[in-house]
Task: inverse folding
């Protein structure tokens, strides 16, 4: 595997960020999430690295990050998030894996749930939301019992699902690449590179999501191998 991926930590207290440390040779790095709640008194970063699994890194001292454990996820590690002392890892073909990281040097597999090709994961109020890429959908999963996660609903999207943002009962979702019926293998297919946009859903009742709006960007975009997109909200802007 390619060992070129690295973690870099910067001091951003001034106008010019300053590199304070680097942790190299992490493989095919994909996403990072940092938690100050997973382990009492420590700041832990989870880094997915696709075929290289997941790195659990102690970043409590920014100048001296160190690997607590190189975790072998059940499949390609892609999406990642934390909730309390759990780490959720989105995998390419096997949905989501829940891992107990209360002792980061000894992570423990709790459970897994199939949700398609999961690119990104978000947890809010004991609910896990997945951006399922190939399936063009969001899956909402009840993880109040981490040993027995249950799918409670699904939200269809026009393009490949990835980035998610949840706040105050509203779900924002970014999607991209191809609209149905395009498979992405032929540039002449109907819908090829026309599945780019974002959607907003009311999820106050997560078992029955209500679509509020849908935005499709009005152009056939250039399509390449890079297949990551995300969304965040700042005031009235996405």
Result:
């Amino acid at each position: 595997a390619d060992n070129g991926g690295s973690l870099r930590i910067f001091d951003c207290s001034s106008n010019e960020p300053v590199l304070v440390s680097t942790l190299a040779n992490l493989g095919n790095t994909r996403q990072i999430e940092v938690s100050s709640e997973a382990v009492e008194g420590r700041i832990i970063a989870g880094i997915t690295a696709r075929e290289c699994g997941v790195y659990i890194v102690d970043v409590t001292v920014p100048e001296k990050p160190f690997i607590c454990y190189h975790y072998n996820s059940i499949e390609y590690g892609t999406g990642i998030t934390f909730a309390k002392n759990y780490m959720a890892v989105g995998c390419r073909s096997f949905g989501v894996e829940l891992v107990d990281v209360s002792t980061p040097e000894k992570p423990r597999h709790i459970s897994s749930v199939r949700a398609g090709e999961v690119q990104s994961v978000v947890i809010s109020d004991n609910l896990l939301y997945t951006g399922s890429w190939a399936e063009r959908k969001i899956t909402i999963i009840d993880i109040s019992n981490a040993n027995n996660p249950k799918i409670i609903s699904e939200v269809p999207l026009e393009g490949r699902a990835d980035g998610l943002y949840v706040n105050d009962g509203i779900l924002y979702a970014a999607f991209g690449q191809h609209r149905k019926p395009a498979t992405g293998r032929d540039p002449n297919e109907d819908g090829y590179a026309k599945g780019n946009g974002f959607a907003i859903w009311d999820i106050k009742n997560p078992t029955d999501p209500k679509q509020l709006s849908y935005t499709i960007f009005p152009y056939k975009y250039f399509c390449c191998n890079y297949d990551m997109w995300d969304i965040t909200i700042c005031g009235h802007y996405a």
Residues 176 and 196 are 4 Å apart (CA to CA).
